[in-house]
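INPUT
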Amino acid sequence: MEIKRERLGSGADGEFRARQLRARDMLRGDLEGPELEQHVEESVLTTTLDKAANWAAGNAMFPATFGLACCAIEMMSMVAARADVARFGFEAFRASPRQADMLILSGRVSIKMAPVVRRIYDQMLEPRWAIAMGACSSSMGVFNNYAIVPADKFMPVDIHIPGCPPRPEALMHGIIKLRAAVLKQPDLGWRTRYGGRGTEEVVSDEELGDVINVPGAGRMGTSA
Amino acid sequence: MPDATGLELIAQELRDRDEDGVLDTVFFRERAAVLVSPASVPATLEALRAKGYGFLASVHGVDYFPEEPRLGVHYELIDMTKVDRIAVRTRVPVNEPTVPSVTAEWPTANHQEREVFDMFGVIFEGHPDLRRILMPEDYEGHPQRRDFPIGGEPILFTHNEGDVPGWWE
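OUTPUT
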């Protein structure tokens, strides 16, 4: 059966089929000369490793399944059919902070809850991001009293989403903003903003010096 | 709900048992309440249980600032067969806020007395485990008292980030 798609590429008649045939030839090793050059130009993308890693990390964050208060209802409906954050790739809520890389503080954080939230954040693996969703976790909102503490007091927050509660669209907008920050300005993490030096989990070999980096011993599963 | 006359009859029965126990009766908006002295709270609740009010629905704390005695504890009793309710109230001064605990007779009072202690600082004598239930253990003060500052913290914005003490300091 002949596959024919008019709108791909230049839109010329039969171009998709031509590409298919060229790819098959390339796999066989039959493609040579300027045709091979053209094929490689069309199908290979060059970038830096950092950019590729940021692209992968920013496009599919796993939020932790962690609801605090009424905002959690909006967080849940963000995943449900109407808003459907799966369109953007942030729908995989993980049941364990070890598997998650995004913490959505959905609601008010009481003084008693703050150590728990902080521990969950600490249990998440780098790179990790935190979103303060709603007025309460950003500025304590209507619960600005003796029992509530804003998220900025005890953990670094990357995005603040206003609203009481924010609509699912607003939360999705915040996540897309965070994605843009991860993709375009990866250096604008919380360490840069809050001056958190010396808190890196993976330290470069130069900084480690000779303490751990014994020649031949290997580190983190790789040979030295 | 006992009407005003029924409330007086109940109060008279309670006075017959304990001369100085019942201080006053309040009938306001179809709600009946008996004001008793702190020491006679357990006996009053038991007498009302014998009359059919067998369910302690809730225990509240109240701060009547600036009236004296300031702190109040309300016991809400329900008769589940007649669908009838009556309140027992007591008042204690803030410098000696001790009320006998009724946890032994009414197990549901356990957590509620802890909450009243947490929020108002009323000490329930004889309570098996009187410690904070809502606020952190190391919290100072009783936040629902009227003279407790409402609290809250300066809100962190970008323009005052340098002035507000934050987590990184």
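end of record. Helices of chain B lie at 4-17, 41-50, 109-120.
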